[in-house]
Amino acid sequence: MRQIVICSSLATLVACLIVVANGTVRRLEPASSSERSAAQIYGRFCVTCHGQDGKAQTNKGKFNHARDLSDPKWQDDVSDERIFNSIWNGRNVQGTMPPFSTKVTEKEADSLVTYVRGLRK
Asked: What is the rounded distance in angstroms from the CA atom of residue 55 to the CA atom of residue 58?
């Protein structure tokens, strides 16, 4: 069977079409980002500032004044919506937290809210 691969982006190879000899077309994409667990996402995007335990005791976290996500008072005072908005839109108060809306899906941001809640000490 002969296959022709056409990629829409050479840099990321995000969306490839494979045209199979019988005429069927399948869209192949990398593993769906929705398959990433909240722990994987936190480990990839959040740990460098907030630390594995959420206490923000990393060098980068101290420099950027990252929030201690394990602080029970903060956990009591902040809504899930605010945590989501901070993840999605970023924050520019005291330090700088970039927006992650281009790196995670809404579903993943929701799962991060739950993960952050689990960091409470």
From this structure: 8
Assign a CATH topology to domain 33-117: Cytochrome Bc1 Complex; Chain D, domain 2 (1.10.760)
Per-residue DSSP letter, 5: E
pTM attached to this predicted model: 0.69
Alpha-carbon distances, residue 17 vs 12, 22, 108 (angstroms): 14, 14, 26
Interatomic CA distance for residues 77 and 73, integer angstroms: 6
Per-residue pLDDT of 74-102, as tens digits, reads: 999 999 999 999 999 999 876 689 999 99
Distance of alpha carbon 100 from alpha carbon 107, whole angstroms: 12
Q: Where are the domains of the chain?
A: 1-30, 33-117
